[in-house]
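We read letters as residues; the fold follows as tokens. A sample entry reads:
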Amino acid sequence: MPDRGQGPSGPRVRVGRPSRRARTLLMTLGVLAVLAMAFVMFAGFWTDWLWYRSVEYSSVFTTTLWTKIGLFLVFGLLMGLAVGFNVWLAYRLRPPLSAMSLEQQSLDRYRMGLAPFKKWVLLAVTALVALIAGASASGQWRTWLMWVNGVKFGQKDPQFGLDVSFYAFDLPWYRFLLAFGFAAAVLSLVAAALTHYLYGGLRITSPGARATAAATGHLSVLLGLFVALKAVAYWLDRYGLAVKSSDFKATGNWTGLRYVDANAYLPAKTILFCIAVICALLFFATLWRRTWQLPVIGFGLMVLSAILIGGLYPAIVQKFQVQPNEQAKEAPYIQKNIDATRKAYAIDGTKPENYSGKSTVKAKDKLRADADTAAGYRLLDPNIVSPTFQQLEQKRKYYQFPTTLDVDRYAGKDTVVGLRELNIRGIPKRNWINDHFTYTHGFGAIMASGTQTDANGSPVFTESGLPTTGSLGTYQQRIYYGEKTDQYSIVGGPQKELDYEENGEKTTSYKEKSGVSLSSTFNRAAYAVAFSEPQILYSGAIGEGSRILYNRTPKERVEAVAPWLTIDGDAYPAVVDGRIQWIVDAYTTTNGYPYASRTTLGDTTADSLTVGNQQRTVVAQQNQVNYIRNSVKATVDAYDGTVKLYQWDTQDPVLKTWMKAFPDTVKPKSEIKGDLLAHLRYPQDMFKVQRELLTRYHVTDPAQFYSGSDAWQVPDDPTNKDGNAVPPYYLNMKMPGDTAQRFSLTTTFTPNGRPNLGGFMAVDADATSKEYGRLRLLRVTEDVPGPVQVQSKLNGLPSVATFVRDMKGADSDIQYGNLLTVPLDGGFLYVEPVYAQGRNALYPLLKKVAVSYVDADQPDGDTTKDTTVFEDNLTEALNAVFGVEAPNPPTTPPGTTQPPGTTQPPASNDAALQQAIADAQKAYDAGEAALQKGDWAAYGKAQEDLQAALQKAAEAGAKLKKPGSGG
């Protein structure tokens, strides 16, 4: 190394390469940096593997992983070989001498600069295209698994006679292979052309031939492969017509062949296939002819044919053959679309039953008696009473209830259910330990009768308190997994958890095997990186036995263990065999069912409850499907997070396909226990998809379908100002001809552009019923007011105006509950609870019940038709709407509203029961007095006393029923 020289005051300074120690230090730092980056990338993979192993679904992780790796390697290698081989071949076919021209002289500089690195450049180009192609192919793991494991549907399409599985499982894979082939051909063609140009095989400005014979032959073969692939594309396009979506002005969204497709596009695709095959052979022939004259002519003929045969000819057929007589021409194809759509959405067994809307009963007392047994009218609206649950049963700020509660059945009665889940934002002092170690779980299921309220309009709880007591008996109340639990918790270690507060703090320590163990330093380091939280690595609160819980919402867990399922927007809790279980409905779907019209799940399942409410949305917002089955019922244990998948639809070929791909992940239907079966129900999102399709596809006559004269629509929710669709409602009710109530999911229809009632649909939603899933559709043949009209008439009643004015004067808000619709003796009974909430009140109270009995116009002027009343409770409202008293008015304890059709046991001489009833009456009177004075503090205290008295009365009544209790 050169020296700078020696100055007069000291030795010369040597400048050059760093010392060995510095080089060693730099190399060490570089290696550590690479290792750190590798560990960061590895941490995500490792924590995923640990999580899947903890939930005992490691086969899902490994199957998915190896499928992705296999596709990445195979297609990445194929693409790399294709491009690399053609670049190498173009280099080998280069001319020995370059033409003496300015063009070639300028290229010589590039050739000389590239010469020392040509192997590395070739490897780099090959590796780059291989990585891109492999990454793209790995994203097709679902397509591959469905193709290789596909199960026959046993149904053939009406055009080509192929099994539906060809379109659902095979065609998507063939299209991917075709797209991959096109990409490989184009990239190889571009790479080979650039190589030939660089080495003189192709010339642009040089004199003489523009291409050498070798370059001509090479590029011609690649062009021939491209055109051959285009021929394959034309052939597959023929089958693609059966699943092609288009806009048909007569019916809107359309899938499948129409007249012009079958009689113009289909023969055109066949002709273009033949032309493309001939054109490809002409390109291959240049290996011997060494001229592009014929291939270019053939290619031009193919392009011209595509324009004339594939575009102009179908337009002529549509204009001059179809349009003049479109209904007759399209009728056979409309029929195919109707049949396929109804079968694909499992509505093929649903035929409209004519329902006149005219009352078949004249006697008012008979109508009144029938009204008692027609339904269990749910006055407690789960979409309104969440604040009531929150105020009365929250107990601590760090608990919360969902915005929309759930409806389930206990002892055969509609019950409104909400879990008291953890609210991390309500923790008194927020810090890392409190957020993730101390406050880890919610506590208890709160339940209230769906058909009863107390005299003040508050829910009558059947399970309440902290810990809860009531009708459920003993069960595991801790909720570690829930819809609101979106943060991770670390449990089971040296740090104790807060269990609940009752006369001081109660602590606990998680003992289940759920979650991932953090006993290993390596695991702690991986989670510290994955969660970007270094304290996980060194915190003393983590030790032997510590486990980390995450992915804690039911939908997250089911989606993770079954990524091939679409999840219903509403998971709901049920207490099964002493455990709180989240029940999740899951669907198998495809968009490859021939002739079946497509729907977008996110749009179809939207209603007034999904707007701004993240609990009631479909996960796959933009998923377009044309086949759906509720094929899987899943459960997630709220305490230990165990996920179980049960086969529900035993005939679904899509589910059978996925069960072949992921064996032993879905349990047979026979393993569903009786207690769990009692809480399974028909899912809302499936019902909403079906009702949307039935607005058009209840019509099975092609001519009527084409005209759209009997098209329906789902009405807007009359209680919602934003104009969103009315949600379906769960309700115990009787359909015409039934002798007993069934747990049902119901909805209404109105004719397009009109407010009157066009149809009513209910499905047997009770999984224990032999007729579970049976859709019954009533077509209303006479002019009967629809929900919006009934709501409008209600709002116009003088009694309603007076009530609203008084409530507004008292600074209270009015909330209209769910408008329930029930068929009754030829007419329809509408029932709507009305809530009021004072400005300083913390929750709404049921104050009124509106009832309307609507009947088609009758010439005899029957007074039962179209009557609307607004009363203090349901019994009074039913009496008023029919103008008669109940045949056997039920006996109710003071302070309760008793639903029709049920009775209370007679009052007893038992002292405890009598005292509790007296206390309830006293608390009720105190509350009414406080309400009139506007003393909200006293009112709240009175409500607490009333609730306590009612609880004591219930306990005393329960004792009287026990043998030997003296009752």
About this structure: The CA atoms of residues 220 and 553 lie 58 Å apart.
